[in-house]
Design a protein that fits this description.
PapD-like_sf; Immunoglobulin-like; transmembrane helix; membrane; Fn3-like domain-containing protein; transmembrane; alpha+beta; 6-stranded mixed beta sheet; 3 domains
Amino acid sequence: MDTYFHIQRSLFLFFFIVFAFFLFSIIASAKVGVGMGAGEIRLTEPIKLGGIYQLPSVRIFNTGDEITTYGMGVAFHQDYHQLRPAKEWFSFNPAIFTVSPGESQEVFITMTAPLKGEPGDYFAFIESGPVPTNAPGTSVGVAVATKLFFTLVPANIFQAISFRVSSFFAAYSPWSWGGLGLLILIILFMIVRKFFSFNIAMRKQ
């Protein structure tokens, strides 16, 4: 009887070790990859202070063999001597996303130029890479990036504010114009209501 239980326990331990070995091999061999579908973004029109710009979108590919979560960001390199835009100028939609193997995700980029800034030629990398996880045996691949070039032209603060307003209405049209129209109607209604109330009060006197 003791021999039977000893053999049974040994077989169970053997299969457990084999199962753990194959499971670890699958996890350890999982490959995380990333590819980007745009090599370079070069804005030919000058960028104005206060402007809101929709940059060309980029497509992120999962070149690995497991489902991976990616993140977007902005990076710089010391070999490029152009001015560096602040990371806060950029927003991504989506900024973090999950892609299955062999599939891709389109990412839309918005750049909001500040009201004050140094005119000149700017350069940055639009970067994407796997978001670090605590999963055992997962290797995080090197991020990929596309180059962004643009020129920021000088403007005074009043021009910048004016361009920010016009860019806002252009970027969020038609909702921005609808909201402005509604606001104007409300103001007109309040003025007319106050005027007629004043006339009624004058007649009573």
